[in-house]
Write a structure and sequence with these properties.
mainly alpha, 6 helices, globular
Length: about 140
């Protein structure tokens, strides 16, 4: 009974950690319009950003993907509920193929574990891609 309780506590902690990791990455975009602009534009049209803003976008992309790598690791070790994992995976499927994120991934995938690289490489491209950069403007969605 104690082992079962410990396992449940570990799972709850991992699920909270996963949510906190991504929240910590995305919270600044809600609080700072300039950072939100860089993230949104960088996802969809990286070349529209200055070199300085592209650098900021790359830092954000790294943090975003590292948060997802941690979430994936929690799932692999059985610490995430399947339904929660499916939501995280679905979100990543949309973001990892956004033009700016895909460009960053091509350049820097070596910064991530082989297991995560293999996982990302096996993700199916969504039929309709939705990110913060496309969600409200369907004209920008790759079909």
């Amino acid at each position: 009974m104690q082992v079962h309780r410990s396992t449940r506590v570990a799972k709850i902690a991992a699920q909270d950690s996963a949510a906190s990791a991504l929240r910590d990455v995305t919270k600044p975009y809600m609080e700072n319009a300039e950072l939100a602009r860089i993230w949104q534009l960088g996802l969809e049209n990286l070349s529209a950003l200055s070199a300085e803003d592209q650098s900021r976008f790359f830092h954000a992309a790294y943090q975003f993907l590292k948060a997802f790598e941690t979430i994936h690791t929690h799932y692999v070790y059985g610490l995430l509920d399947l339904e929660l994992w499916e939501g995280w995976r679905e979100l990543l499927r949309h973001y990892v193929v956004a033009p700016g994120m895909a460009h960053y991934w091509e350049l820097r995938r070596d910064l991530f574990s082989k297991r995560f690289q293999k996982f990302v490489g096996g993700l199916e491209r969504p039929a309709n891609r939705f990110t913060v950069g496309t969600l409200l403007d369907e004209k920008k969605i790759d079909k």
